[in-house]
Amino acid sequence: MDLKHLRLIEAIAEHGGLTAAGRDLHLSQPALSQQLANLEAELGLALFHRIGRKMTPTAAARMVLESGSGLLAGMRDLEERVRRNARGLRCEVRLGIQCYTALHWLPQAMVQFHRTHPSVELKIVNDATHEPVLALLDGRIDVGVLNATSQDPRLRTVPMFKDELVVISAPGHAFGARPHVAPEDLVGEQVFVYSAPHGGGALNALVQPVRRKLARWTEMQWTDPIITFVAAGMGVGIVPDWVLDAPAARRKLQRSRLTAGGLRRTWSVATLDSRAVPESAIAFSAALRDATRALASRRR
Predict the structure, then answer these.
(1) Considering the entire predicted model, what is its pTM?
(2) Which of 10, 61, 102, 180 could form a disulfide with 57 if both were Cys (CB 3.0 to 4.6 A apart)?
(3) Is 139 exposed, middle or buried (0-12, 13-18, 19+ CB in 10 A)?
(4) What's the whole-number mean pLDDT along residues 262-286?
């Protein structure tokens, strides 16, 4: 006996006959009659009393209905959730953010998104922080926020905004008098940076030639401790320029460009390049683009 048989017994018991039950199950009366006859033959017992044109469940059928009602309800709930998820009406959008300390733009995106998708839950997947592209490809997240542009053809990637990695130092530090800091200027310094996988891409490539000559290279999971340690004169930091948007941070720290041309990054939002991506994930990607671009325009 399977779910098809449970639905058959339930429909006949509910409607009291094969014709109405067949309409409910989208089956013809002869087809439904044959399915019932086959099931009764397989079980070796009658499931319904035939009283005139009325069919009433036997004790065996009532036992099946009592035991199987939870299964049917659970399956209906699952089917409805799958349908709504496909339409983007009720689901969760799983978000992976590369460098999840940069969440100053997230509330505005959430507010905009929830105006049109109030029943969709947004979930930040922390273990996707260092590998959002891999998490997208593995199906662990629906939307990835990347601090670089991925060339993977399996992804749909749209640029959002640019930021710049800058050198921060405590008031009075020699870097404060310089318009920019070259990699060789970091020799002998304790340098605090945000922890990044695989060496941090462009930043690692820039600093690698002098890495062994630094007093120490310390990677941290959050930017707030970097600000605290640098403000206390314990070293210098390399952080995104938005860290200095807060007035308190500007009062505590000096800022210098990293190299004369600066070290800029392009942030982008990515989803799988697939028609199976839920509408809600596409809508949240659009909300992220709108929110980050609005913030970027206000910073100019």
Answers:
(1) 0.65
(2) 61
(3) exposed
(4) 89
